[in-house]
Amino acid sequence: RSRPASRSEEEEQENRQMRDVHIAITNDDGIHSPGLRAAVEAVADLGRITIIAPTDQQTATGRGLTGNKQSRLERLAYPGGPSSLEAYHCPCSPAQVVRHAMFTLFRSEKPDILISGINYGENLGNMISCSGTVGAALEASSHGVPGLAVSKQTDIASHHNYTPQDWRGAAHFLRKFTTLVLSRELPADVDLLKIDVPDGADEQTGWLMTRTILRLLPGFATSRRGSWWPRKNLKATRTSMPWLWKNRLR
Questions:
Q1: What predicted TM-score, i.e. pTM, was given to this entire model?
Q2: Are strands 21-26 and 47-54 parallel, antiparallel or unpaired?
Q3: Which residues contact 75 (CB under 8 A, 6 or more apart)?
Q4: What single DSSP character describes residue 21?
Q5: Nearest CA-CA partner of 20 in 109, 126, 132, 101
Q6: Three-state SS across 172-222?
Q7: Using an 8 Å Cβ cutoff, are 26 and 51 in contact?
Q8: What spatial distance separates the first Cα and last Cα of the chain, rounded to whole Å?
Q9: Tell me: the pLDDT tens digits for 115-167?
């Protein structure tokens, strides 16, 4: 009679499955953004990676399909990434780049997930619809690809400039939720996850699944109705994301 698999064997099997996945990564800050590189490094060992990003800054383009629609995705040598990594860029909005890729690079085989980020600057309240980071993930979801949009809180001056940032906290949550999405199916009524990571967050920072507020409030929104920010030393409750994932994901 066969013995049950041990915990280590189950983890090894899950790791083998992860290595077979295809991860697409984009952003709205341009292909040379340090935030994009942080995203690549965060998931480099989880599967095969294809970068599809705008050539330059495309902040606040939403899901607009702008740019020269006759442009091609140009391949780019991306130093420092895994040997299997392929990188492409196009002078279009993030959503248009994703759309291009779905009908060309990914025509025969779509990626298992599209990660958009890590974005310079948080996306809050009704301003979320302006985000090119979110727009790219929405475009992917319209083609049946689960989306994960990740943004890091920064000062406004950094929204259009590649300022030095400590990406470790945002990279931790990006990897955490990427692993969850890849190992479980999103609920039928969920197309993407939007993660906003406050400046100074780390692996010990708590997090919540929340709803968007109707307008952008000054400072952190910490009310029960719309708590956008993870809070340090947060105790898990029935409204915490672990509970929602456990009970809603198949």
A1: 0.80
A2: parallel
A3: 86, 87, 88
A4: E
A5: 109
A6: HHHHHHHHHHHHCCCCCCCCEEEEEECCCCCCCECCECCCCCCCCCCCCCC
A7: yes
A8: 29
A9: 999 999 998 887 888 999 999 999 999 999 999 999 999 998 898 899 999 99
Q: What percent of the chain has pLDDT over 70?
A: 78
Q: What span, in angstroms and rounded, lies between the C-alpha atoms of 36 and 247?
A: 32
The residue type of 53 is A
Instruction: Name the phi and psi angles at 26, rounded to 5.
Output: -140, -175
Please state, in angstroms and as integers, the Cα–Cα distance from residue 223 to each residue in 15, 88, 151, 170, 246, following that order: 38, 41, 21, 22, 24
For residue 4, give both structure tokens: 């049950």
Query: Which residues are 115's β-sheet partners?
Result: 25, 148
CA atoms within 13 A on the CB side of 208: 22
Q: Answer whether 100's CB lies under 8 Å from 65's CB.
A: no
